[in-house]
Amino acid sequence: MAGLELLYHSVAPDLSCPQEALLCFLHWKLITHDYRCLGVGDQPGSDERKSEMLPAGWNADKELYTLRYRLKDDSRDLLVKGIMMDGSIIFNVMDPKSQKVADLTLKVADYVNPEHLADFDKVYRNTEELQMEVVQHIVSPFEAARAPARAKEEPKRERNPSPPNPPDHDPLWIPPRHPQGSRQPNWPDPMGPFAVGGEDLDPFGGRRGGMILDPLRSGSRNPSMDPSSGLPGRLPPGAVPPGARFDPFGPPRANRSGPDPDHLPPPNYDDMFM
């Protein structure tokens, strides 16, 4: 609590009641939050100036204390009034521009020892709690009102701004689609010398052949095997992966010429018109 002791000693000869020690504490806390005292009373005087000290005559009225404060940057004024009632002091604080009001009621005996008004080391009680009460109920409400105003003044910045587009970028350009079947899938080659049985040993290792062998996995490419055999047309490229276990729709070499009618006549053939 740097500065409070010097401030207290400067006004200690004028203190005559314990609530004035609380008002001195409140004044010090406002000073630490960049407020400066302008003077006493509700209306400004002709020769006012911002000061860290309590003005002359600040404790002339023992039932009602009135002080005015202003931030160092002149962005806010505060009108502080302390009213005594049944051993407690009620602080009413108002911002004249925004009409925002805050208040705090303190029981004087809980925070001030009236028998040691002249001794700074003994006059205050529960200073941590007192400081928390002043900040929470008097200082913070006006600081919270000030934060949104600062946010509006500062320009908004994007956290992850998108990179600028190149000069020749056309946002309406749509990339061409490749026709289905025009590109061969990237199938693994099953024709390696160690492919046989690999799938049985490592079922999750990829297509490398198993125990069942078919013509397409015999180890040598068979150009006579045509998956499109038996179909009126041909399968599109990539429809059957290289080396896949695939039964053609018809016999191999579906395009070869049919059998000679004179070959293998039916049994007991004796009718030429049959």
Give an overview of the whole structure.
- With 274 residues, the chain is of the alpha+beta class.
- The chain has a domain at 4-147: Protein Transport Mog1p, Chain A (3-Layer(aba) Sandwich), CATH 3.40.1000.30.
- It has helices spanning 4-11, 18-32, 108-111, 120-123, 127-153, 198-201, and strands spanning 35-40, 64-71, 77-85, 88-94, 101-107.
- A 5-stranded antiparallel sheet has the order 1-2-3-4-5.
- Helix 2 (18-32) packs parallel to helix 5.
- The longest helix has 27 residues, at 127-153.
| Fraction of helical residues | 10-25%
Q: Give the C-alpha Rg.
A: 48 Å
What sequence of helices (H) and strands (E) makes up the elements? HHEEEEEHHHH
The major beta sheet can be summarized as: 5 strands, antiparallel
Described by the principal axes of the CA atoms, the overall outline is rod-shaped
Given helix and strand content, the structural type is alpha+beta
Q: From the 3D coordinates, which CATH architecture of the domain at 4-147 would you assign? A: 3-Layer(aba) Sandwich
Kindly identify the CATH topology of the domain at 4-147.
Protein Transport Mog1p, Chain A
What is the count of helical runs?
6
Give the CA-CA distance, first to last residue.
124 Å
Low-confidence stretches: none
Strand content: 5-15%
- Strand line-up across the major sheet: 1-2-3-4-5
The number of distinct β-strands equals 5
What is the subunit organization of this protein? Answer: single chain
Mean pLDDT: 77
**Overall CATH class of the domain at 4-147:** Alpha Beta
Keywords: Proteasome
Domain PI31 proteasome regulator N-terminal: 12-142
Region (Disordered): 146-274
Protein name: Proteasome inhibitor PI31 subunit
